[in-house]
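TL;DR need structure tokens for one chain.
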Amino acid sequence: MKKKIIYFCILLGMLTMISGCKKKENDDVVTLKFMHRWTMEPMKSATETMIKRFEEENPDIKIEVLTATNSSYKQKIKTVINSEDAPDVFCTWGDEYLNKFVREGLVLDLTDFLKESGTMNSLVESQMTAFQYEERYYGIPLKVDAKLWFYNKDIYKKLGLQPPETYSEFIEQLKTIQSAGITPIYDGNSNPYAGAHYLTTLNQKCVPEDILKSDYSLQSGEFTDPGYLQALQIYSDLYMNKDVAAYDWSFAYSGLINGDCALVYDQYVTVADSMEMDEQFTKEHLGVFPFPYIEGARGNQTIITGTPDGYAVSSRTKHPKEVYRFLEYMLSEENCKNYLESSYWVNARKDMCDNIQNYTDIQPLIDGMKYIRESTSTTPWIDTELDPKIAQTYVNGIQQIDTGEVTPEQLIGQIQQAAKSAKEERK
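>> reply
TL;DR here they are.
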């Protein structure tokens, strides 16, 4: 009996030791909360694969994933980033959208990490600008992006057209396309950010650069320059499909693939969606060119529209060293190649952007990158660069122009009032 008791005590002690070791092992695993908006393919699977590989290579780090759909993400992240349960790493837009978090002390300054790790030197300089605030960096770029005209090569070839260099040439092409019984441009603005991207480009091309910078930053915030009205009038005069506000992006792009329209103004990253919808069309029949030079316009004609999405780090994170390892992995050449192969999204690594033809044979990706790298710089999306009150006025107002509810002149008045109100709130 005594022997049984002794054996039992020994067994109990061993179980206790094993249990203690297991607890200690679990205590050594750091959990990072990672919030993103990649709920749709192909980025959903690409991101899941990235996380799995990272965890395999870093068994002491566990990634807990939080997601939100693209349409709800902007509002949701504003809520959670202010909470005690804020994600360690989260997807973000740059410029004023991120700058607001910076001013509120909600994001971590990554400048020293980027410089000491050498990561800064591996990235395209223009793609870092969106995450810079007062000479410091508060985010990293995920994917290169820009706004380009996507065109159906078959239609252009049939009508004897070539990508235009000037806006007047472009307008003549639209007239030729319409005369052939084809709708020149399809736009789907039911999610009104599509229309806002047009105005991002047109404001930049029509408004003098110093005035645009002053108004956008609310140093003056007047929005009285005639270039703002010129931009809205150009948007109103483009040869688009009817009922623009009733359709979404997929309608517009399906029209391009089917030959119902000749052109769609969209983002460089849309090549990924195009590959998902019709790989053969994308590789053989899809062409790209930048928004042409607008003669007589007073803005900067050499800048291309668009800045990258990226990631920022919560200032509340308790594990900055582990976070840095995760960021470095996301920007590693291996991971960037995996993303390109699986999702057709190009990362902001210099070696990949400068030698894109060595990484892919998809011509729209190669041609689009050429235009991005030739641009002197990039201009931020209007909905992330402007104060939220002004941005929302623009976004809603452009959709009202689509439906005929307001005129360009009326919308300019609304924007001026929103800017005045936003400037007063900043004081």
